[in-house]
Amino acid sequence: LTAVLHGYEAMTRIGMAVGAQHYKVWHNTSTCGPFGSAMAAVTLLGLDREQAIWALGNAGTQACGLWQFLADDAMSKFLHTARAAEAGWAAATLSKRGFTGAARILEGEQGLFRAMCPDADPGAILGNAGGPWQLRRTSMKPWPCCRHTHPAIDAALELHSAADGAAPTSIVIRTYQAALDVCDRPTPDTDYTAKFSLQHCVAAALMDGEIGFDSFGDAPRARLKELAHRAKVEVAPDCNARYPGRWGAVVEVTLSNGAAVSAVREDCKGDPELPLSAEEIAAKAERVMAEGGGAVDVAGIIGQILRLPTAPSLGALPLAALGRV
User: Fold this and answer.
1) What's the first-to-final CA gap in the chain, in angstroms?
2) DSSP letter at 140?
3) CB contact at 8 A, 53 and 42
4) Residue 58 phi/psi, 5° resolution?
5) Would you tell me how many other CB atoms lie within 10 Å of the CB of residue 1?
6) Contact 50/4 with Cβ under 8 angstroms?
7) What average pLDDT does the chain have?
8) Is the pTM value of this prediction over 0.85?
9) Rounded to an integer, what distance in angstroms lies between the CA atom of residue 262 and that of residue 255?
């Protein structure tokens, strides 16, 4: 548990320090993630201060991940998350063997801030040191698609029963500008681009009443194509004013019988202001591990993780199975 806390603390504090301009080109999960996995591994391996510095230095020199994959409808985001975890683990295990790393990887003249962060805020790393653990301020994604679609999905799910299986005659999605910049895709033509489509995600939530791994394939895209194409997306001034502090959306639907219904979300489901329940978190873990395939004892892994607060160690947790997932 201490390693989990340390990993989140390192990753998110550096994430707050890189600045908003960094995010316009660089995918923060991939650039800040290596610091988190390195710090977690440092704690698990019991490394000393010097070794920890080396690990963070070598994690930072592997920071990478460009947003260009979005423009090209490529699948690189999956690679970004996986490599961030791998990079931190490699950096920590190497430092244990005496492999040195830059001590000033962030603030140095040729470090990450100078190279990749035009509006870096180094003070954010150690600021409010006595505040809550960053893990308690971190969001969890309930659905396997772009986070910017989630407030609208949540609102659309509320309207599912009102639609009663009949396609609405009109859909209007109002949210903040950043969501439109990334997810205004009325006619996605791949599984991956459908995950970055406000129109498709809302249409799927309205018609199916759920969003899962199977919501983005050829069949659901074909079935929902016309409805998604008719959906309009607009900036909602109040949502835009609250972003990025709060991620909200409004979905307005005209039903086939002419009735107009709407749902509002001021916060994104899974954010600290609207957290997932323990049952929802376990259900997500089950879906993700099942999607990974292999002979995995999903219930056993979840049970052992939930017992961490009282368990002296990971014990017999099947790490090989976790590696396959």
Assistant:
1) 20
2) -
3) no
4) -75, -25
5) 10
6) no
7) 92
8) no
9) 11
Two tokens, residue 275: 């957290």
CB atoms within 10 A of CB 43: 19
Token pair recorded at residue 244: 């990025």
Give bridge partners of residue 263 from the DSSP assignment. Answer: 251
Phi–psi pair at 173, nearest 5 degrees: -115, 120
Q: Which tokens belong to 47?
A: 């490394």
CA–CA distance, 157 with 141 (Å, rounded to integer): 15
Q: Quick one: which H or E segment has residue 84?
A: helix 76-96
Count the Cβ atoms, other than its own, within 10 Å of residue 30: 23
Structure tokens at 94: 């190497």
**198 closest CA partner among 187, 209, 213, 210:** 187
Upper half-sphere CA count for residue 3 (Cβ side, 13 Å): 17
Antiparallel, parallel or unpaired: β 249-254 and 170-175: antiparallel
Q: Which pLDDT band, with edges at 50, 70 and 90, does 184 fall under?
A: very high
Q: In which residue are the tokens 């961490």 written? A: 308
262 in Cβ contact with 252 (< 8 Å): yes
Q: Please name the residue that has the structure tokens 């650039």.
A: 31
Q: Which residues touch 316 (CB under 8 Å, ≥6 apart)?
A: 304
| Alpha carbon distances (Å) from 297 to 33, 193, 194, 280, 319 | 27, 32, 31, 19, 11
φ, ψ of residue 264 to 5 degrees: the values are: -120, 140
Closest CA to 56 of 75, 72, 36: 36
**Residue 27 and residue 67: Cα distance in Å, rounded?**
6
Q: What pLDDT digit, counting tens, does each position of 114-161 carry?
A: 999 999 999 999 999 888 999 999 999 999 999 999 999 999 999 999
Helix (H) or strand (E) holding 44: helix 28-45
